[in-house]
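#lab-general

N.A. 3:47 PM
ok so I finally got the sequence cleaned up, no stray characters, all 496 residues accounted for. can someone with queue access submit it? mine expired

B.Y. 3:52 PM
send it over

N.A. 3:53 PM
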Amino acid sequence: MADFTAPAFNAGSVQQGTFPVKAAIVLALAALADGLFYGHVIGISAAIFAVAIACGSLLANLATLNRKQVLPAGALLLGALVPAIEEFNVASLTFMVLAPGAGLLLTTNRDRPRLGERAAALCDLYLVGPFRFFREAVAACNLPALRTGFAVWFIPIVLSGIFVFLLVSANPLLEMWISLLNPGNTASYVSLGRVLFWTVALSIVWPFIHVRWSGKREMPAGLTEAAALAQGMPSGRNDFFGVATILRSLILFNLLFAVQSVLDVAYLWGNATLPADISYASYAHRGAYSLIVTALLAAGFVLAAMRPGGPAEQSRVIRPLVFLWVAQNVLLVLSSILRLDLYVQIYLLTWWRVAAFIWMVLVAFGLVLIVARIALNRSNDWLIRANLITLTATLYVCSLVNFAAIVADYNVSHSREAAGTGVWIDMNYLFSLGPQALPAIDRAIALRGFDPALVSRRGCLVEQQRGEIASWRSWGFRSWRLQRSLDALPKNSTTG
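B.Y. 4:20 PM
back already:
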C-alpha cells in the first residue's frame, strides 16, 4: 500500500532538487485543467488531460522509472483513451481514470507483484493520494533549502494575493489596470469556484507527479527522528513564520497598501479627476466592506507576527514596518467610512448601514490598540481587555440611542421630497422601523401629501404604540416620551 504517513524526508519524499520542478509541473497541469474544464463541456479535453498527466509524471520521475515498462504503460494508456475519444461517457471515463494509475504502478513500483497488492496501491493512490498534497505542501517547508526560499516567501505571496483580490474588488481603478493586463472581467477569472477548482486540480494531480509507494517495512518512529537529526532537518518544527517571512510580508503588504492609500488620498479625499469611463460615484460607493475585511486580516497578521516574546517583536526593522502598515490600515478604514457616508448620502440610512459605521469605528480603534500594545510592550491579555472594554462601552452607549428615530429622521430630511436631491422616501422601510419612526412618518406624509393608505398604516403604528405602554409591565421611558409627543399633536394633523 502507499504510505501516506511517512515524513517528508524519506526516500519517497520531496527532494530539494526535484521539488521546484515537480511544483512547476503540477501548477502547469492545474492551469491546463482550468483551460480545458472550467466552465466548459467535457469531451476530448479529458483525453488530452490524461495524456498531459502521463507526460508530466514521466518527466517528474525520470530518475526512478522502470524503463522496460514505459512502452507497455504507454500502450495501456493509449488503449484506455480510445473509448473516451470515441465518446465521453461514464464507461470511457472509468477506463481513462484508471489507466494513468495503472501505468504509474507499472513504471515506478517494482514491489507489487501480486494483483491484490496492486489493487490496494491503486485505491490508496486515488482515494488517499489527493489529501497528501495539503500535508506535503507544508511538510516541504522543513527542508533547509526550501526554508530559505519557498518557506519564507509562501506566506507573503499567498497573503499578498488575498489582499490584491480584496483591494481590486474594492477599487474600480485597480480592476481597470488589471483588466488591461488580462482583458475581460476580473471577477470571471478570480472567484471562489475557480479557487476551489484549482485546489481540487492540484490535489488530484500531485500524487501522479510526486510518486510515493511505500516499501515493505515502515521505519520506526525512533529511527525516523534519528534520521531527521542526522540529515540536519527538524522533524516537527520549521521557521515557516520567522523573522524573514514577517519582514518580506510587511514589505510586500506596505507596497500593496501604498497603492490603495495613494489612490484614496487622490480620488476619494482629494477629488482628483477620474478616468472618463469611471464615475466618482462608482469609485466612492464600492468596496467599503471588502476594505474592512482587508483591515481585519491585516490585524490578525500583526497579532500573529508581533506576538509577545516572538522573534519579530524587538526587531528595529520590523516594528517601523508594522506601525506604517497599521497606519495604512487605519487610513483604509477611514476611507471605508467615507465611502459608506457618501453611499448613505445618496441611498439614505438603514439599520445595517448604521451598524457598519459603528463596526468600522471599532475596527479602526482596535488597530490603534494593537499599535499601543506593541509600543507599550503590553501582553495580549491587555489587548483583549482593552477591546472588551471598548466593545462593552460601545454597546452600552448604543443601548441608549434611539436608532429607529435617527434613521427615520435622517431619511426624511435627506430625501428628494425634503431636500430636492437624493432618492424618494421609502415609506415601507419607514413603517418597518416601528412606532419610534412615527414623528418622521408624520413629516413624510406632510411632504408627500394626504394619502389615505399611509394614514391608515400610521394608525396601525399608533395602536401598536398604545398597546406597548398599556400595561405598567411593558412601560419604557422611550415609549413614554414618544406617547407624550403623539398626544401633543393636533387631532387632525395627519388626516388632511
